[in-house]
Amino acid sequence: MHLRWMMATALPLLLLLQACVPAVVGGAAVGAAAAHDRRTFGAIVDDQNIELKAGANIGMDAELKKLVHVNVTSMNGIVLLTGEAATTEARDQILTHVRAVNGVRRITNELRIAEPSSFGSRSKDSLITSAVKSRFLVTKSLDPTRVKVVTETSVVYLMGLVTHAEGDLAVDRAATIEGVERIVKVFEYID
Asked: ∠ CA(82), CA(141), CA(108), 5° rounding?
């Protein structure tokens, strides 16, 4: 009986502690990345809010949700929209939803008019993104935490607050990755 009581008490505590580890580790990772990020902490939080609110606005539109696959990425208030919309009307609705979010300074609309992409295509894009980020990790003179990488249908989008030299170096390194068909710069230059 004593063993059952101990297990009944220990299990919830163990689960609670297990939930804390990712929060602590995740918080440390955000803190470490923010140390290198040229955005202010407030801008980082604003970008996360823009992404969440825009995604929620799109997701709450049940009819629109059936017609699109959209990625919303924000960097310093500049929003990159990638993915597919089945119709021009659906694309326009997405733009309306994103424009309604406070803090959006500019929208770079890279939505294609097409049926939503397949799981296989998205998986390939994830592999390309990982390969580009890995290449950045081993590149001297390029802080990989300052460049955000988004890949959609083998097109690599690079975002961040960078110098022209850093931006050029990031483009050069991304271009060496197999499967990359095109690179689009969505940088905000600081020099």
From this structure: 20
